[in-house]
Amino acid sequence: MTTRLRVKSRDREGGVPWASVVSLLLVVAFLFLAIVLPTKHSYLLDVVTYGAEFLPDGSERSQWSLQPGVILCSRTSTPPKTQQFSTKVCDRRHFAVTKLTKKLTFVWDRETRVILRSTGDGDILVHLDAVPEGGMDLGNALLGEGFETLPVHSQMIIRRAVLAESGSQPMSGEIKVGTVVKGGATGLLDKGSFAIRQSLLWRQNPITVQEGTLAHGDRISFLASRTLGREKPPKEVTAYGYLSVHADAPGARGPKPFRMIVYTEPAKGTMRIERFGAKPSEVAPSWTDRALRDPWFLGLTAILSLGAIVTTLISSLKEIFARRRRDSARLLRTALGLLRTIKAGRTRR
Fold first, then answer.
1. Are residues 200 and 316 in the same domain?
2. Backbone phi, then psi, for 54, in 5-degree steps?
3. What pLDDT was estimated at residue 34?
4. What do you get for the CA distance between the two ends of the chain, in Å?
5. Same domain? 282 vs 184
6. How many domains does the chain have?
7. Whether residues 263 and 334 fall in one domain
8. Is residue 276 a part of any domain in this protein?
């Protein structure tokens, strides 16, 4: 009975605080699951590029409003495939050309495929690589006969000064930035950066969980899910953005790219990067990105770590004090024993 009571006393005085340990483990496990479980994220691109393309979704978000001076080039004949797309000013052998003297406002049709290219002097060439049946409707009967709708492979020239005066031009749909590098390729991405933002548990405002830079010649697109290693073609998602004039650096010479801002809605998709000489890569946030960028998680981790240290320190101090009490009791018993022995010896004498 004495031994059993002594063991219980030691557990109370210097044993492991099991309740605290279990509580700490439960909190850590909950935080770990909150970080590891995937949540929706969005992408934000800020790029300077010589080319892009998009498939409009037909919404009012793809409405362009351009000041006078736009050049419309309506396709009148079908040239060889090698000449269907050119960054040169519209060739009058294959186009009916007119320069607008009034403002042009229209919404890109849903079935249109638009290719954007920067010309050497900073103008933007808009090429209609695909159009709805009956042509791309510009929605303005005063443009002139033959220009109310544009057939496939028609073009539009937006002078740099016109774009600067018109301001940003929005787009909504499947957006690709840049083009794949090959011999004679135009429309390459010049430079840019991206950020991935994510709304984490308990918070409504998203935080930036990953950032990076894009290399010259990268081609960027957005997919609904990971597609690497799958046979099915990638499914792209709707993105939003706008193009505007890129401010040249003082003294800059050479071709003039344009600027684009592109972003996606929160989803569980990926950003695909195609780079010359390398396999395509897909960028998506991982749980480590979330953990390293989440201030709440970092703060709670610091608090829990400090709590664990304090708990361990208190437990160690309790054990030290308990050991000292046991040692003191042992010394006291030894001293009392010696005194009894001495006293007994004196009594015998």
1. no
2. -155, 150
3. 57
4. 38
5. yes
6. 2
7. no
8. yes
Instruction: Name the amino acid, one letter, at 349.
Output: R
Average of per-residue pLDDT across 243-254: 74
> Are 180 and 233 in a shared domain?
yes
Same domain, 25 and 80: no
Give the range of the structural domain holding residue 141, as residue numbers without chain letter: 41-286
Q: State pLDDT tens for residues 179-223.
A: 988 888 889 999 999 999 987 666 677 888 889 999 999 999 999
| Beta-strand pair 239-245/169-177 | antiparallel
User: pTM surpassing 0.85?
Assistant: no
> For residues 244 and 66, what is the distance between their CA atoms, to the nearest angstrom?
12
**Residue 51: which of 173, 210, 175 has the closest Cα?**
175
Helix (H), strand (E), coil (C) string for the chain:
CHHHHHHHHHHHHHCCCHHHHHHHHHHHHHHHHHHHCCCCEEEEEEEEECEEEEEECCCHHHEEEECCCCEEEEECCCCCHHHCCCCCCCCCCCEEEEECCCCEEEECCCCCEEEEEECCCCCEEEEEEECCCCCEECCCHHHCCCCCEECCCCEEEECHHHHHHHCCEEEEEEEEECCCCCCCCCCCEEEEEEEEEECCCCCCCCEEEEEEEECCCCEEEEECCCCCCCCCCCCECCEEEEEEECCCCCCCCCCCCEEEEEEECCECCEEEEECCCCCCEEECCCHHHHHHHCHHHHHHHHHHHHHHHHHHHHHHHHHHHHHHHHHHHHHHHHHHHHHHHHHHHHHHC
